[in-house]
Amino acid sequence: MNKSFTLRAATALVTAAVLVTLAALPLRAANPPRIKFREESWNFGKVKQTAVLEHEFVFKNTGGAKLTIHKVETSCGCTAALATEKTLEPGQEGKVKVSFNTLGYSGEVTKNIYVDSDDSNDPRVVLKITATVEVPPAPRAELSPYNQDVGLILEGDGIETKLTVMNRGELELQLDNSQKNVVFMSGSKRVTFPLKIASGKEAALSLKMTLPNRVGPLRSEYIVFKTNDPQQATLYFTLSGYIMTKAQLKELFNRYKDTLK
């Protein structure tokens, strides 16, 4: 076969392919992809707290060219969303599946879902879900404070401090602690667990924590409470400070004794 003929044929084929591609560009520009949702918001109405809500937003490519979904994201981690189709031919439908966990929410709540595509007229569609979250009566535990720096502690003395436990809920709060190295007092009486606190009331506690054979920095020593609060089953009271040996205390005193006069 003539080599020059073969070269001319190949060139003609490439040229034809380029011309076809270029001819299609104005067609896409004249009739580009379009994303259209059946609805862009959904109201779940009244729901119970802790319910996991689900809804599917149906959309369609109403344009004349292939539609590409670039990404789907949500306004918070409590909401998940996923597109069933990443590319849609003209006339094809897809879904954005949305899931919302109501745990920790109350009252009217609105969350956004963002759908990004190559629709030049509407590159980002904002979908909204709304729900009125009803919270059943329950205890609600709070600590004051949640953490405390106790400063310098002499080795063997342990930590002595105070905290208040409050019940901001509508039902009785039950508080438990099983740490063997902590003694709790309420006034002059030793606290026995579970400690019960009525709705709207509080308990002022003093405590002593023993820390045998511990010296040096105390960065995060936790006192752990278990509760019947459905939103906070575990509460942490965090202590920090520095445990000194008697030798260290003596050295510190000798260094600054003139300043202390």
Description of the structure:
By secondary structure, the protein is α+β, with helices and mostly antiparallel strands. It folds into 2 domains: 35-134, Immunoglobulin-like; 141-251, Immunoglobulins (Immunoglobulin-like), CATH 2.60.40.10. 16% of the residues lie in helices and 51% in strands. A hairpin with a 6-residue loop joins strand 18 (216-227) and strand 19.
| Number of spatially distinct domains | 2
Show unreliable segments.
Answer: none
The top-level CATH class of the largest domain is: Mainly Beta
At the fourth level of CATH, the homologous superfamily of the largest domain is Immunoglobulins
- Average pLDDT, rounded to a whole number, is 89
Based on CA inertia axes, which overall geometry fits? elongated
Structural class: alpha+beta
User: What is the level-2 CATH architecture name of the largest domain?
Assistant: Sandwich
Radius of gyration: 33 Å
Task: Provide the fold topology.
Layout (H helix, E strand, L loop, with lengths): L2 H28 L4 E3 L3 E8 L3 E10 L5 E8 L4 E5 L3 E2 L4 E9 L5 E11 L6 E11 L6 E4 L2 E8 L4 E9 L5 E4 L5 E5 L2 E2 L4 E3 L4 E8 L6 E12 L6 E11 L1 H15 L1
Parallel strand pairs: 2-9, 11-19
Antiparallel strand pairs: 1-3, 3-7, 4-6, 4-8, 5-7, 8-9, 10-12, 12-17, 13-16, 13-18, 14-15, 14-17, 18-19
